[in-house]
Amino acid sequence: MNEAAVETSPGPLALAGLRAAEAPRAPAFIVTIYGDVVEPRGGMLWMGTLIECCARHGLNESLVRTAVSRLVGAGRLEGVRIGRKSHYRLSDAARAEFREAARLLFAPPPAPEDWLVCLSEGVRDAELPLPWARLAPNVALAPNREDIAPLDGVLLRARQLDGHGDLGQLAAERWDLAEVAAAYESFLLTHGALRELLAEGVPLSPEDALALRLRLVHDYRHAALSDPRLPRSAYPQDWPAEAARRLFVTAYLGLSKYAETHVGAQFLSPEGHLAPRNDETERRLFRLRREAAT
């Protein structure tokens, strides 16, 4: 984002620590817009609305059109021309991928408590899907989660025996936890002021609230999707994921009551304005409220 431009127009974005933030990468940010705003409301958006929304984040029309073309070429977006207007929606593959991301954002499963171990000669030369990690030429390890794709071979379930070995060191060597921690810490630094902003009741325009929420989702999604989501005992004591999660839940709930007004007023699909809220958006908010109350 252009720092000078924000400096001459102070407001919530500066208060939230976004003044010095760089503009997001256009393709990834467009996917964030679709996943957070468009997909739960029917899935299609007019190109003009997309350009206007991205402009608030330092992405000009040329960047947006180029990014959309690349996303179409990569099979991530699909275009539909209605009259003189172009509308775009997520492809089936991208929609399925973001459904998984949305589950992590709005209804995260419990942290795993133990591990899966795969014994197989097929592991030796295979490129292992994340979060599987190789322990030895024919041994691979992953957190025991429902969404883990099993590898071909003998699968075992394992727990660490207390007092035997340094699980944290092993995890740090097999997964890039330092990079994940840096992503969470960057999220906390960038968006931490939102908690105070909302607690103090600083007035927010619907447009400002949506801009803040989109960046919140974009940055948190980047950090959370890079996290291998290991058993808690594998992480260091000062692991920042819990603090980042609390901030995300609090800020998303606080911003949504304003942000969704802007969606209903300005976001256009072939059928007209997108609904400010519907059953799916209410489900997301209900899950976050329930989580915040625990």
UniProtKB/TrEMBL annotation:
The keyword Lipid metabolism does not apply. GO terms for biological process: DNA-templated transcription. Residues 26-93 form the Transcriptional repressor PaaX-like N-terminal domain. Coiled coil: none annotated. InterPro entries: PaaX-like_N, PaaX_C, PaaX_trns_reg, WH-like_DNA-bd_sf. Keywords: Plasmid. Residues 175-263 form the Transcriptional repressor PaaX-like C-terminal domain. This is PaaX family transcriptional regulator C-terminal domain-containing protein.
